[in-house]
């Protein structure tokens, strides 16, 4: 796990790479995902501007005395990631080091943390000080999972567009609070 950590990037680098991929795609996937990179960067920017740490969650983090690290498997084009990753980075800032491992650059890490057989992101790995995986979380908070299950149960009654819309409204209003709460409880 230490090797993955050592090759992971900072949040600032994550943003820089996303902008680079948007402006100068280096392969067909990056070109095909142009609109998703654009939307992802807008959502990341909105979250960074609006996010305010919850004092109770900070107190809970401090009470946990967690001295490990947070490794997030992500890509900036992902809707779940663009809503969650910036809030997590801001929350842990000054408390625990956070790095991001780009899923699409090397799938060997995400393949160890599949969600129902899929490479769903973001995936948050909680590492102890010796780089052992203490726990993992992702790709979305409980409420987001419930919306996904509702969509999967009856896509005719609850179409994909409605699911995506409801999920993004939830993320915009929640501003990462539920994801942070679930992750802090896993520390």
UniProtKB/TrEMBL annotation:
Pfam families for the chain: Thioredoxin_9
Native organism: Chryseobacterium defluvii
Protein name: Thioredoxin-like protein
